[in-house]
Amino acid sequence: MGDTSIMEEVGSETLHRMLYYMKLHRFYEDRIEIVYRQGKLAGPVFLGRGQEAVGVGSAIQLGKDDYIFPSHRDLGAFFIRGMTPEAVSLQYFGRRDGPMRGRDGNTHMGDWSLNIGLFVSHMADTVPVSAGVALVLKMRKQGNTVLCYNGDGATSRGDWHEGLNLAAVMQLPVVFFCVNNQYAYSTPLHKQMAVPTVADRASGYGMPVDSVDGNDVLAVYVSARKAIQRARDGQGPSFIECLTYRMTGHGSHDDARYVPAEFFEEGKKKDPILRFVAKLKAGDMVTDGEITEMDARIMAEVEDAMAKGEAGALPEGPEALAGVFAD
Amino acid sequence: MGDTSIMEEVGSETLHRMLYYMKLHRFYEDRIEIVYRQGKLAGPVFLGRGQEAVGVGSAIQLGKDDYIFPSHRDLGAFFIRGMTPEAVSLQYFGRRDGPMRGRDGNTHMGDWSLNIGLFVSHMADTVPVSAGVALVLKMRKQGNTVLCYNGDGATSRGDWHEGLNLAAVMQLPVVFFCVNNQYAYSTPLHKQMAVPTVADRASGYGMPVDSVDGNDVLAVYVSARKAIQRARDGQGPSFIECLTYRMTGHGSHDDARYVPAEFFEEGKKKDPILRFVAKLKAGDMVTDGEITEMDARIMAEVEDAMAKGEAGALPEGPEALAGVFAD
Amino acid sequence: MITYLEAIRQALQEEMRRDPNVFLLGEDIGDFGGAFKVTEGLIAEFGADRVIDTPISEAGFTGMAVGAGMMGMRPVVEFQFSDFMSCAFDQITNFAAKTHYRFGVPVPVVFRAPTGGGFNGGPFHSGCLESHFVSTAGLKIVAPATVYDAKGLLKAAIRDNNPVLYLEHKYLYRRVKAELNGEDYVVPIGQAAVRTEGDRLTILTYGAMLHVCVDALKQISNTEGAVELIDLRTLVPLDKETILTSVKKTGKVLIVHEASRTGGFAGELSAIIADEAFEYLDGPVRRVTAPDIPVPFSPPLEDFYLPNADDVAQAVRELLAY
Amino acid sequence: MITYLEAIRQALQEEMRRDPNVFLLGEDIGDFGGAFKVTEGLIAEFGADRVIDTPISEAGFTGMAVGAGMMGMRPVVEFQFSDFMSCAFDQITNFAAKTHYRFGVPVPVVFRAPTGGGFNGGPFHSGCLESHFVSTAGLKIVAPATVYDAKGLLKAAIRDNNPVLYLEHKYLYRRVKAELNGEDYVVPIGQAAVRTEGDRLTILTYGAMLHVCVDALKQISNTEGAVELIDLRTLVPLDKETILTSVKKTGKVLIVHEASRTGGFAGELSAIIADEAFEYLDGPVRRVTAPDIPVPFSPPLEDFYLPNADDVAQAVRELLAY
Ligand SMILES: Cc1ncc(C[n+]2csc(CCOP(=O)(O)OP(=O)(O)O)c2C)c(N)n1
Ligand SMILES: Cc1ncc(C[n+]2csc(CCOP(=O)(O)OP(=O)(O)O)c2C)c(N)n1
Ligand SMILES: [Mg+2]
Ligand SMILES: [Mg+2]
What we know:
CATH superfamily of chain A: Thiamin diphosphate (ThDP)-binding fold, Pyr/PP domains
Structural class of chain A: alpha/beta
Shape of chain C: globular
Shape of chain A: globular
Bound molecules: thiamine diphosphate, magnesium ion
Strand content of chain A: 5-15%
Strand order of the largest sheet of chain A: 1-2-3-7-6
Oligomer: heterotetramer
Low-confidence stretches of chain A: none
CATH superfamily of the largest domain in chain C: Thiamin diphosphate (ThDP)-binding fold, Pyr/PP domains
Number of domains of chain C: 2
Distance between the termini of chain A: 53 Å
Mean pLDDT of chain C: 97
Number of strands of chain C: 14
């Protein structure tokens, strides 16, 4: 399917929303990194710079009653589900009114009222948990789905294997994404696995496997659409590998000197936002004026979010004691 | 390759040894099951009846400095490596002089002086451990290999995934066998995985995968030979699925009423010992007289082993305290 | 008269009838009825959607139960043996236990853990894994010793909005029996039971060891009213009040558990007592536990390993004489 | 002057030079030098065959280390954070720890576990996982608090023929420094160190909390010679003799650890003391620990969570006044 016909199908409103969220993801992170370097944040910062197309191209298609379990680099997906930039800032600043109330930091967050599952550090732990959510959706015959995102590194863990297999054998409505940014911290893909793609690795579970250019938001969109439809139709899980580039260190403390310059050059050439803008323009889907307006709006939103995040109240020490157990 | 030419290559001495070990496996287990039913054993009994070709067809090819990590149904492989029937009986009877000195029971055993790794209940735990042994063989450039056996059920565990992947990415000299007897306890294969064969599941790791008739000892032999040679040549790990039939309950306490009658009928038709005998006879590799003689010899060995096992001394209670730590 | 095992099944059945959100997950629990036949017959009544057979994937199905719990379901996970929880350790301690604290979303999951030795199961089928889990904030732990409690604590666990580790002792499955009139009741989590009253020595125990303690007390003559035998029933959250009230009365404590000594739950109990009841103590706080070794298989070794009535009686005599 | 972190690296380097069987295994430990740069430079000296980068497979590479250990190698596993040991819990407790007992074959593996909080790492990067592991028969556990011990205990751990859990405290990595003259020494596993002598109160602690205790004592005036500060250094096997000798002298005990309270190692210490030194006790056995919650992220919450010098000083004052 050519880009033009996809764009026509998707329609300009959704396309603009996609652009908006990709930019919001990017601008937000550019800004939070500065805040980090200013020494204002207690914890680390993990960025999805260059990877924005994955979360956005997929989560944009969800309905209210669908679920996501994003990875630590899928900020755009959080935004799409309704988490506000302000909430993310409150989270980063460790404030009381953040989604995790200061109990956890950075992208270790979620908001169940928005159907955003929570991230646990231990890589791939969300894979079986997402399957469990999907099991309930299946039981309830809701026609809903769960999107679960993990990095390439996470796919080497046992929980990934067990979760994929369980979802397949129980035919659960879940879509597993591998955000393959070709590195797990400093470890390149070829030191993680002996197959060229994560899709190869995912082929042994009995679910459809696709491998797409993760820097092409339309490619992600199309592949995700099919997988989501399968899930809604009761045809079980799917796996989608999105090949992308981590245009940053592992965290903002990491200068990524172990990444060869060519990698960053290639990633830059394939910048998902620039490419999407070019496509939109080629298809007459967006004007320069609209983009300028959008950028300004996002900048303002991000500034506002940072200010509100910073201004938020810290929790008091003894608040730490409450809520270990549910009533 | 036709059976005749394989048999010629293998040679009658090895063929006779293979037959001997398959029968020893079978006869030993027939006998230990009776002992169990007589109430003489404290713990359970796990049998490899009908699966004898897998361990025998593979382990028979090993040299002294190779290693095996058998599953709980690969008794023939234990025997081939030099564990005596008497030792196995001492183990089953929980005697002090058994290989585990009464500290563990049934096939939860090993003997490192014979390069037999030990079995841990937790399914698939031996997979990464075997990879670790193989890593050392590779470091030492010994040209040796490790054979690691697990059931179909074990392949659903995370440790299986992690172990296979590590062996592949590090190109370790290990051969992973799946003794696919189509059941994990009461759970048939199709409830364990959404792919028709375990070989499908193993295809995602970047190592050669083969799927053979596990009731045909020559087929196992040929596939294992190739994989072992690859390992010796520094070409890394391989995976071999051996499709077989568990001609018994999960343990001797289990009447396996959940297994359809056809399954047992088919397994019976494909009995690996009967089939091997037929092939040997067809190829003029064995005479009836030799078989009669072999059977008698094995019977006597087994009887002797049971008697010695039963006669062995039990450990005294306080012996339990020694040896938690190595010096 | 029903057995401890049947009481567990009854609790499952009644809760499944009562609440459509309750479902079961585990290996061989469907048509086969589970390795110990605890779930026998349940698939016939509730169907394969609510009695779900899983592959051998302890981490995987634990994670699934957590996800389902977050969705408002009440999954009950059967581990075939409690020992295999070690494969799900990460999901239990990090996802199940920490989610409410971090996220404010309840995770009402029950982990049924067939526990303990006494049947020559060897090092991998006889464990008392509570020692590994008591330090996990956010995880409740219960350990019924009687038929009544087996049912009532399981019901309470299923209705609880938190992950609950339910330690069902394999040795008791078919060995203890009682009349239950089929009534619907819960045994509240967090309440110990005083099994016999006494004023000279407190015994704290739980699970199968309760019966060992009862046997031990029968061996000892002339001690009517001396020993207060407390069945903890819940380890986390602990009924400190019952414990401290008793210890303050008796002044002496013996703690008995089947788990091996170092790092066992007796340590926690001792610490509480040595701090909060120090002024009332008239003697050392003693422990009768298994030794610090894996559970050995061979009968004489396992017999030696397991704390028995003689060990307890001996300790009781010493403490009473102290 | 070298840091605690450099002392760890020195120990690795010297042992790798001394014994070709020593090799390293873990995530990002090669060219990258590890998340904390502990192994920086080692791959340059020893090559990629002895400093092995692994995929994210904690269970897998732990199992590999066990297999290699059985072969007579001495692998040193780096967990990127001790919290991720939870993914390898089964391999550590069942394969590494039980193999010698069952099988008679040594498993000389070191598990390097970057431990503890104090840097806003949140619930999954700040854990003190010893509470989960102390009950594992067959596993030794050491926890150096000083530069000297960081080196000497790691060398001892590497030379030990058993699996050793080496708890290196992240907070100390770059915060404590000392002169080491490059000499080759071991700090024997199983020996506590008396850091200051005293006759009125024994403090038992380990890891980063040693420094908190030292700070606390500085706050308290007029107590020269009152407090005996014991750095356990090894949790398993425990130096009971040093502990009991001290407690029998002082009659009072304060136990300080960073791990959360319930099921923490203080319980075990308390139990030993309340039994074996009961007659010498002149006051309650007190604990200063973190509360029973996951380690929270936000600075005020984490500050509240971590035991600090004020908490310790307060407890010391109370006990001295008791
Ligand atoms: C089980 C586990 N081991 C180690 C870590 C430490 N760690 C955090 S992120 C990371 C790399 C993850 O790589 P990948 O899954 O590819 O995600 P990416 O960061 O590239 O998005 C590692 C090793 C962890 N979080 N969990
Ligand atoms: C992690 C784990 N979970 C559960 C069990 C209990 N169990 C013992 S054998 C078995 C079935 C194993 O099936 P498979 O791997 O196919 O081997 P088979 O018995 O068929 O040879 C199960 C579930 C176990 N040993 N380990
Ligand atoms: Mg990655
Ligand atoms: Mg099987």
